[in-house]
Write a structure and sequence with these properties.
Blueprint lengths: L2 E2 L1 E4 L15 H13 L4 E5 L5 H13 L4 E7 L2 H11 L5 E8 L2 H8 L3 H16 L5 E6 L6 H14 L3 E6 L6 H14 L7 E6 L6 H10 L4 E4 L13 H10 L6 E2 L7 H12 L20 H9 L19 E3 L5 H10 L7 H17 L3 E2 H13 L6 E9 L7 E8 L2 E8 L3 H13 L4 E9 L8 E9 L2 E9 L2 H17 L10
Parallel strand pairs: 1-10, 2-3, 2-9, 3-4, 4-5, 5-6, 6-7, 7-8, 8-9
Antiparallel strand pairs: 11-12, 13-14, 14-15, 16-17, 17-18
Helix pairs in contact: 1-2, 1-10, 2-3, 5-6, 6-7, 7-8, 13-14, 15-16
Bound molecules: 3-methyl-2-oxobutanoic acid and zinc ion.
Length: about 500
């Protein structure tokens, strides 16, 4: 029997700290549900003291998730810990994660505390956290640059104070695998009662070593890995969940551990996170990149056709790559539609939502005769992405574009209860469409990102557009999908404007 490796996903907390990756509560809930479906052990849902919006989002996730532990992050002070404790209270399994920095530079320059004061504060913090739950994680921020003798003292005190998980973050991505593994090994050997806690690793990717460091630490005795979908996170990101999970599974001969992850949910999770945050996945990204299982060279293709194992160490279907399977068409009925959504693990929600989605499915099937699983994911994401009360709605569009002429867009919009028409020219049809919308809305927002992805292959594929807007320090990502790229773009732009309009939209979180 192998040891269990606890998979702790922090996409919704550290991942959300990526510039511009802020998410609404509804988006966080969708990702949390996908993480639960994937059987992630612990979901770090946010940093409740950061803002009322963060608090509400963590509380909503705690109320919705049953199978995974829901965790809230808190600095080592009473107020943060009370906030985190209350936010995770509705969860079936809850954890409070508290942290304080332990490196000389952080203690001296940032905290202005002596090492003894840091230990004292950590012990108090763990005591406060234990009032809310028995499942308390303690992190020594910047452990990767901390002195080993001091870490032994801090972690000894933390375990005696009641921390059940001890996390050793390489906060600035400074470590290399051998050194990090040796740190873990030394700590586990030297900290008294080390076996009373689970040892955890949390690696940042500044030198591109986050996954390598995490895996080296697992060999050295770590039994929890903190990671994010697509490696999203501060600066160069965090260790990527999909790479760690698949390394442990594919090289079972090397790793003395196993995870509970349903690996077939990895690609859907990657797509969802990418779509919501607007962070594209590079085509050559391991496991989830579009080319991760594509064989281009003739020799490779020949080998794979003769025996797949000649060039493949994993099976694409094991990580959730569907083969663009044709699933439904224009004659498919509501029952088949519902059944397929359930088969591919899409949350249907209410009957009203199913009816609305089915109507949109019929519209799509009229334009695009073959509907693939990927289309259904986009359609349902589009449906869920639309705020319940849309203030701005796209009614219709008209475009004129001809070689040698300036493109022109005419847009019919509903703004609240009022229907209005506007037109504009632009350097291209998308530019003209956005300018036409702005002629009426005058949002004052700045466009930070515009990206388009084809959802399936073929020229009749739907385009999935992400637009990132910022205004007064707020950031909102909007999404839209359609077989017409200009329509998808206008929908995405309006979706972002709706989010900026919603009072619940929150500031881009930073610790
Ligand atoms: O990178 C880090 O040190 C963190 C801690 C809060 C765990 O994210
Ligand atoms: Zn981090």
């Amino acid at each position: 029997m192998k040891d269990a490796l606890v998979v702790f996903d922090t996409t919704l907390r550290d991942g959300e700290q990526s510039p511009g990756a802020s998410m609404t509560q509804e988006e966080k809930l969708r990702i949390a549900r996908q993480l639960e479906r994937m059987r992630v052990d612990v979901i770090e849902a946010g940093f409740p003291a950061a803002s009322p919006g963060d608090f509400e989002a963590v509380r909503a996730i705690a109320g919705a998730i049953r199978a995974s532990t829901v965790c809230g992050l808190a600095r080592a002070n009473e107020k943060d810990i009370a906030c985190a404790g209350e936010a995770v209270a509705p969860a079936a399994r809850r954890r409070v994660h508290t942290f304080i920095a332990t490196s000389p530079i952080h203690m001296e320059k940032k905290l202005r505390m002596t090492p003894d004061q840091v230990i004292e504060q950590a012990v108090k913090a763990i005591g406060w956290a234990r009032q809310y739950t028995d499942d308390v994680e303690f992190s020594a921020e910047d452990a990767g640059r901390s002195e080993i003798d001091f870490l032994v003292r801090v972690f000894d005190a933390a375990i005696r104070a009641g921390a059940t998980t001890i996390n050793v973050p390489d906060t600035v991505g400074y470590n290399i695998p051998e050194q990090y593994a040796s740190t873990l090994r030394t700590l586990i050997e030297r900290v008294p009662d080390a076996d009373k806690a689970i040892w955890s690793v949390h690696c940042h990717n500044d030198l591109g070593l986050a996954v390598a460091n995490s895996l080296a630490a697992v060999v050295a005795g770590a039994r929890q890995v903190e990671c994010t979908i697509n490696g999203l996170g501060e600066r160069a990101g965090n260790a990527s969940l999909e790479e760690i999970v698949m390394a442990v599974r594919t090289r079972a001969d090397v790793f003395p551990v196993q995870t509970h992850i349903d690996t077939t949910q990895i690609v859907p999770a990657s797509r969802l996170v990418s779509q919501i945050t607007g962070y594209p996945v590079q085509p050559n990204k391991a496991i989830v990149g579009a080319n991760a299982f594509a064989h281009e060279a003739g020799i490779h293709q020949d080998g794979v056709l003769k025996s797949r194992e000649t060039y493949e160490i994993m099976r694409a279907e094991d990580v959730g790559w569907g083969a663009n399977k044709l699933v439904l068409g224009k004659h498919s009925g509501r029952t088949a539609f519902r059944a397929r959504l359930q088969e591919i693990g899409i949350e249907i929600g209410s009957e009203a939502r199913l009816n609305a989605a089915f109507a949109r499915f019929k519209e799509l099937a009229d334009k695009k005769h073959e509907i693939f699983d990927e289309d259904l994911h986009a359609l349902m994401s589009d449906e869920a992405a639309a705020p319940a009360q849309e203030y701005y709605r796209l009614l219709s569009t008209r475009f004129h574009s001809e070689t040698g002429e300036t493109p022109q867009a005419e847009i019919m919009l509903a703004i609240g209860d009022e229907e209005t028409r506007s037109s504009a020219t632009g350097s291209g049809p998308v530019d003209a469409a956005f300018k036409a919308i702005e002629t009426r809305v005058a949002s004052g927002a700045t466009l930070l990102l515009y990206s388009v992805n084809a959802i399936t292959t073929g020229t009749d594929a739907q385009g999935e557009v992400t637009v990132r807007l910022s205004r007064d320090g707020r950031i909102a990502n909007g999404q839209g999908a359609d077989t017409d790229i200009i329509v998808a773009s206008a929908k995405a732009y309006l979706n972002a404007l709706n989010k900026l309009h919603m009072s619940s939209e929150r500031l881009n979180p930073q610790l």
